[in-house]
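Agenda item 2: protoporphyrin IX containing FE complex prediction
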Amino acid sequence: MAEDVTYSSYLDLDRILAAQHPASDAHDEMLFIIVHQASELWLKLCLHELQAARGCIVVDHLRPAFKMLARVARAQGQLIQSWDVLSTMTPHDYSTIRPHLGGSSGFQSAQYRMMEFLLGGRNPDMVTMHEAIPQVAHELRQEMDRPSIYAEVVALLDRRGFAIPREVLERDNATSWEHSSAVEEAWAQIYREPQEHWDLYELAEKLVDLEYHFQRWRFGHLKTVERIIGFKKGTGGTPGVPYLAGVLKNAFFPELLSVRTAI
Ligand code: HEM
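Presented output:
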């Protein structure tokens, strides 16, 4: 009954607020846990919006998709802000927590990987670490079988009459999106005459915004990690900062970057 609903019951606060379990006596561990948990909640919202936005793009309902993509960019703003809070943690503070983390790392965030997959950054090796939880591995594989948001946008360009080669439209979904000069040319036409193709122009800019925010998150993470652990290895087993610098080079929508040089 709606009358029985309280603030706490509606939001299931008992469970959410009982879900912080520091493993050490370190004062800063609460911050460490909460920043990660809050990030996972924002990621959950991003996935919810991105999945719905893709559904809208498939049926050419771009206006609702714009609203959702704009919301994702704002949620990414919240994710980026979290680096400011986390960077109040010093190397000494972190060193008291690190021994308790074992092999756990944000590297194993299934939602983060799902967001990359949805956008079109797809590395099948990233599913392997999730095999221990079959449902998670299954959902990531299922996503890899589907066209990403960007693949759906390129399919839309084709439906709107731009010359997109068949081999681009029939690409293997389980690989990251590779630059195509035909797709770049389609974007070039749109960017040269935005008045003629206003909704596609707006869609392109929404995607650019999203990728820009994604890169700002990655860069903020890298700089936060650098000031906290320097060049120590990550708990997830990668070389740490050099790995994070490497992923900064991954572009989700390569033609939307290259078109800026082309026009
Ligand atoms: C003291 C704070 C943090 C440190 C020292 C840190 C360190 C690292 C390192 C070294 C990696 C590389 C993988 C590894 O070997 O572990 C990594 C990956 C990652 N971290 Fe963090 N991290 C911190 C906070 C966070 C937070 C708050 C989030 C939010 C969810 C996060 C999410 C991720 C994600 C998603 C990856 C994978 C990135 C990719 O594969 O592109 N990290 N982290």
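Discussion summary: The mean pLDDT is 97.
Owner for follow-up: CH.
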